[in-house]
Amino acid sequence: MTLEEFFQAHPKAALGFSGGVDSSYLLYAAKKYGADVKGYFINGQFQPNFELDDAMRLAHDIDVGISVIDADILSIDEVAANPDNRCYYCKKQVFGLLQEAASADGYELIIDGTNASDDVDDRPGMKAIGEIGVLSPLRLCGLTKDDVRRMSKEAGLFTWNKPSYACLATRIPTGERITEDALIRVEGAEDALFGMGFTDFRVRKYGEAARLQLPADQMARAVELRGEIRQAVGEFFDVVMLDLKER
């Protein structure tokens, strides 16, 4: 099956839209193949501000409407408690809100940007969206992350080379309760590193310290700039550590 064939068979759909590589291309492809599509961005504590900015920019660039739905994800105790299957409860909440809003807008089918490279066998979040009935066109059509990046570049989408970005909750150790303060500190530290030109990294909370995980080719620069990094990230964490295991 091709994406064109998918949207011929499913000409009206609501997309769970994150502003990332996969959902951005899917939004573009749906419009390209004539589908009535609308994107829904769930704006909760786990999404950094730049993701919403990217989502709004992409939707504007391709002239597709989106709705932004504010959500207090941390009000769900099963999510805030941060168990191994946190993603199950989070996705249930997020896609439940999306389903409610989409239905009110006249959209019954919900799609998402899961691609054929994603390992879905042991992902609680995938179990949740499966129970809701969400379809994943990229995966159904056998399109991998590399395929999506290539096609996004050919389509002129600025997201084609955007680094993969897991939600901020993944920066908090499993079993440690997630607080809004911790998420704000992590996002602030990551924004500081982005501002210094680092990419595709993670700042993970480690007790009261920040543990920086960087790609191998950025390690040397981090050591050279350790003073600047210590000062910038030190605004959010008293202790700053560099994890020598590459990201």
How would you characterize the overall build of this protein?
With 247 residues, the chain is of the alpha/beta class. The chain has two domains: 3-161, HUPs (Rossmann fold), CATH 3.40.50.620; 179-243, GMP Synthetase, Chain A, domain 3. 45% of the residues lie in helices and 14% in strands. The chain contains eleven helices and seven strands. The protein has helices spanning 3-9, 21-32, 49-62, 77-80, 86-104, 124-132, 137-140, 145-155, 180-195, 219-224, 226-233; strands at residues 12-16, 36-43, 66-70, 110-111, 202-206, 209-213, 239-243. The strands form two sheets. Strands 3-2-1-4 form a four-stranded parallel β-sheet, sandwiched between helices. The protein has a three-stranded mixed β-sheet with strand order 5-6-7, covered by helices on one side. α2 (21-32) packs parallel to α3 (49-62). The longest helix has 19 residues, at 86-104.
List key phrases describing it.
247 residues; alpha/beta; Rossmann fold; GMP Synthetase, Chain A, domain 3; four-stranded parallel beta sheet; three-stranded mixed beta sheet
Shape: globular
Q: C-alpha Rg, in Å?
A: 19 Å
Question: How many domain units?
Answer: 2
Mean pLDDT rating: 93
Give the helices and strands, then pairings.
Layout: H1 3-9, E1 12-16, H2 21-32, E2 36-43, H3 49-62, E3 66-70, H4 77-80, H5 86-104, E4 110-111, H6 124-132, H7 137-140, H8 145-155, H9 180-195, E5 202-206, E6 209-213, H10 219-224, H11 226-233, E7 239-243
Helix pairs in contact: 2-3, 2-8, 5-6
